[in-house]
């Protein structure tokens, strides 16, 4: 009996050939895909498939394929009829959505990404100001593959840099969660260069409002502790000061009042003066400059918070923060309270160094 | 009447820790966080502690019954309820364990079909797995325990959960105690399925060298599993929004999607395949227990009945067509497990007490 079992078990080794093989050289991996709105409810999907020309090691070009249809999976299937090797979506790392598409809501497209096991949760998403296919068609990266270029662009500026952005998991977290709204970086094509021109703020899954780079940077300051970035502060009519952030800390505080609850945001920035623009940085002047900086930052941050409140957007997750401090919090009541809520902000700046010259 | 196991086939008491832990752990860890968090939200960890406490009580009761009668449940059934009723109860346990084994195997195959090989046939994988199961069980109880010990390695995969740490939101744990006691108890009830499996103690009791000394290991196993479950629940709370979690099917595997190494782009393939280590102990112990019950209930040789049981499990696995079928079987198992642990075992315990009282007075 045991001998039979051994023989049967050994024969199972032959089964390893039964599953569909996927060899890296024999599939087409794509890193970036772009979604656009097409007419009568269709979507247009463009993939940039990297091609490695033979005989020229190190060089890579992109083959752009696009088609329109109703579901992205079916479009991908159809696109593979234009290619010699099968398409494999396992490496998809950047997904671009056009302006119009984001305005109408991204829920359906994102559902495809969450639902399939072969997509990574660390995939980066972005909204394109304009047509996303046009952006992909532009010659913005001569040396690198377009997908990798966009990935590193977003990665360095958002995950490691000063601008806010969310990956697939974080976007879903903010979308599904109550009391916070998602946001994505906004890409723009300018003279054949791709640039991050700000942040697209979403209400539910629909693109609602855009803010520029400076506002985005201020928004990120309110969201997480940072150790990078230059802040430009206006002191007088034409005196500008550049501060390097060497460590900012942000903390939300909740105060319960009888009639109205308030949230106070404490922002403490440790900074070095980098660019003093012929301003005499004297010891006795320093205190005055510091207060000026604090007031200036506070003013622009408050303007931003008021903008959020006016549009009933909550990218900072203040609703979610309140949920943690109030019993039986519910979203409906919060939405009524939020636009008129009193949100305080205390900015504290510590100037550590003024450079190597007085 | 009471058969004693040859000392050659017994295992040390501390190995009971391994047996009970691997019997409880299983593939459930992949989805165990969803239900309690849906019911009790950020207070689900209280439910875990409540469940753990109640299981400790159940383990204590089981030891009182077993130590008092000095034999396993198969004989206790006959002793308590006579030949016919006792055998009927034994038969019920056989079916329960076979169903459990079939469910576990089908669940594993589903995970593989969704995550790794979408086009693999159910029966091929089931056949390969069951052949291996036969090989292990034919080696005897000590080999099964060895496999349990080997599967322990899989627990270290748990450390990869820390890769998700950059996405933790600690205020998801606030406010504490925002749910009613009813909701927390309901979540505890949902957790019972994750703790079911301790009843294997009833059947492997006689295989432990000094069974009276093994009680602390059973409790330690439960403590260790509680720590793992607490970690799983808390990590799930920190990583996901509660609304987001209820749309996930296997949050345990989704967490592996955050793991990335320069040489392994997609760690979840390893994570999904490694659940095999959690599958084998349960399936082997279940089929072993049911064949052992068969041996003493109907006096047939264990090795004769084993191929038939494996065939039955194989057919059952192939007959569960899809996710809906799996969920259906799972609901059955949940119900049986709940009643087994919180009704049947206390009932046996009280029955045993009354029986001894009656004997003394008589």
Could you write a compact summary of the structure shown?
With 358 residues, chain A is α/β, with parallel strands linked by helices. In chain A, 32% of the residues lie in helices and 30% in strands. Chain B has a single domain (7-361), classed as Up-down Bundle (Amino acid/polyamine transporter I), CATH 1.20.1740.
The main sheet of chain A orders its strands as: 4-3-2-6-7-8-9-10
**Helical content band of chain B:** over 70%
- Could you tell me the strand content of chain B as a percent range? under 5%
Identify the quaternary structure here. Answer: heterodimer
Number of beta-strand segments of chain B: 0
Which CATH class of chain B is shown?
Mainly Alpha
Biggest interface between chains: A-B, 32 and 32 residues
Strand content of chain A: 25-35%
Return Rg of chain B in Å: 21 Å
Q: Kindly state the percentage of residues in helix of chain A.
A: 25-40%
Overall tally of structural domains of chain A: 2
Overview of the structural elements:
The complex is a heterodimer of chains A (358) and B (362). With 358 residues, chain A is of the alpha/beta class. Chain A has two domains: 20-211, no CATH class; 213-358, Nutrient germinant receptor protein C, domain 3 (GMP Synthetase, Chain A, domain 3, 2-Layer Sandwich). In chain A, 32% of the residues lie in helices and 30% in strands. In chain A, the strands form three sheets. Chain A has an eight-stranded mixed sheet with strand order 4-3-2-6-7-8-9-10, with helices on both faces. In chain A, strands 11-12-13-14 form a four-stranded mixed sheet. In chain A, a hairpin with a 6-residue loop joins β12 (240-255) and β13. The longest helix of chain A is centred in the last third of the chain and has 28 residues, at 283-310. The mean pLDDT of chain A is 85. With 362 residues, chain B is mostly helical. Chain B has one domain: Amino acid/polyamine transporter I (Up-down Bundle). In chain B, 70% of the residues lie in helices and 0% in strands. The model of chain B has no long low-confidence stretch (mean pLDDT 88). The chains are: A alpha/beta (358), B mainly alpha (362). Chains A and B meet through α1, α7 and α10 of A and α5 of B.
């Amino acid at each position: 009996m045991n001998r039979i079992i051994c023989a049967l078990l050994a024969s199972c080794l032959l089964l390893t050939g039964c599953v569909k093989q996927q060899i890296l050289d024999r599939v087409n991996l794509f890193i970036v895909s772009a979604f656009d709105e097409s007419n009568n409810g269709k979507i247009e999907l463009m993939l940039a498939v990297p091609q490695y020309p033979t005989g020229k090691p190190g060089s890579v070009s992109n083959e752009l394929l696009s088609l329109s249809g109703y579901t992205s999976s079916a479009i991908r299937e159809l696109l593979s009829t234009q290619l010699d090797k099968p398409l494999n979506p396992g490496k998809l790392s950047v997904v671009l959505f056009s302006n119009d598409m984001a305005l109408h809501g991204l829920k359906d497209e994102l559902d495809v990404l969450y639902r399939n096991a072969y997509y990574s949760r660390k995939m980066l998403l972005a909204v394109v100001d304009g047509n996303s296919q046009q952006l992909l068609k532009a010659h913005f990266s001569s040396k690198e593959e377009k997908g990798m270029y966009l990935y590193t662009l977003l990665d360095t500026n958002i995950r490691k840099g000063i601008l806010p952005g969310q990956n697939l998991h974080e976007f879903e977290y903010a979308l599904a969660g109550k009391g916070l709204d998602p946001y994505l970086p906004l890409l723009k094509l300018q003279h054949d260069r791709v640039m991050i021109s700000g942040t697209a703020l979403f209400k539910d899954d629909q693109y609602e409002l855009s803010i520029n780079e400076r506002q985005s940077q201020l928004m990120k300051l309110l969201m997480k502790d940072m150790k990078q970035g230059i802040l430009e502060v206006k002191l007088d009519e034409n005196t500008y000061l550049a501060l390097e952030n060497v460590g900012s800390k942000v903390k939300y505080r909740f105060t319960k009042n009888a009639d109205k609850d308030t949230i106070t945001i404490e922002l403490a920035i440790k900074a070095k003066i980098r660019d003093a623009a012929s301003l005499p940085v004297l010891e006795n002047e320093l205190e005055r400059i510091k207060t000026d900086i604090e007031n200036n930052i506070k003013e622009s941050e408050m303007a931003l918070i008021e903008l959020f409140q006016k549009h009933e957007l909550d990218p900072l997750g203040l609703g979610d923060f309140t949920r943690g401090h109030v019993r039986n919090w519910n979203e409906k009541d919060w939405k009524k309270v939020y636009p008129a809520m009193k949100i305080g902000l205390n900015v504290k700046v510590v100037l550590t160094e003024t450079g190597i010259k007085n | 009447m009471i058969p004693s196991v040859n000392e050659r086939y017994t295992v040390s008491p501390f190995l009971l820790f391994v047996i009970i832990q691997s019997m409880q752990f299983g593939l459930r860890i992949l989805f165990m966080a969803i239900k309690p968090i849906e019911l009790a939200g950020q207070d689900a960890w209280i439910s875990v502690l409540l469940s753990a406490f109640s299981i400790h009580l159940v383990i204590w009761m089981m030891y009182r019954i077993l130590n008092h009668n000095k034999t396993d449940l198969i004989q206790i059934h006959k002793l308590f309820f006579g030949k016919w009723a006792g055998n009927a109860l034994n038969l019920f346990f056989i079916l329960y364990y076979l169903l459990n084994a079939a469910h576990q195997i089908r669940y594993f195959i589903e995970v593989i079909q969704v995550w790794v090989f979408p086009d693999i046939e159910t029966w091929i994988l089931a056949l390969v797995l069951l052949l291996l199961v036969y090989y292990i069980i034919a080696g005897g109880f000590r080999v099964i325990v060895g496999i349990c010990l080997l599967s322990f390695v899989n627990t270290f995969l748990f450390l990869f959960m820390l890769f998700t740490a950059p996405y933790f939101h600690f205020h998801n744990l606030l406010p504490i105690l925002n749910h009613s006691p009813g909701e927390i108890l309901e979540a505890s009830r949902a957790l019972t399925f994750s703790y079911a499996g301790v009843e294997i103690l009833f059947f492997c009791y006689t295989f432990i060298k000094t069974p009276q000394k093994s009680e602390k290991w059973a409790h330690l196993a439960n403590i260790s599993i509680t720590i793992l479950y607490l970690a799983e629940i808390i990590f799930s709370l920190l990583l996901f929004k509660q609304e987001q979690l209820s749309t996930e099917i296997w949050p345990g595997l989704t967490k592996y999607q955050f793991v990335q190494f320069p040489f392994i782009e997609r760690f979840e393939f390893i994570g999904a395949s490694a659940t095999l280590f959690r599958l084998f102990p349960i399936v082997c112990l279940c089929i072993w227990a049911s064949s052992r019950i068969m041996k003493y209930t109907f006096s047939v040789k264990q090795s004769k009945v084993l191929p038939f049981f494996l065939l039955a499990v194989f057919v059952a696995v192939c007959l569960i067509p899809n996710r809906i079928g799996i969920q259906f079987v799972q609901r059955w198992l949940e119900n049986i497990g709940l009643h087994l642990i919180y009704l049947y075992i206390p009932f046996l315990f009280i029955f045993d007490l009354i029986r001894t009282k009656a004997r003394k007075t008589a």
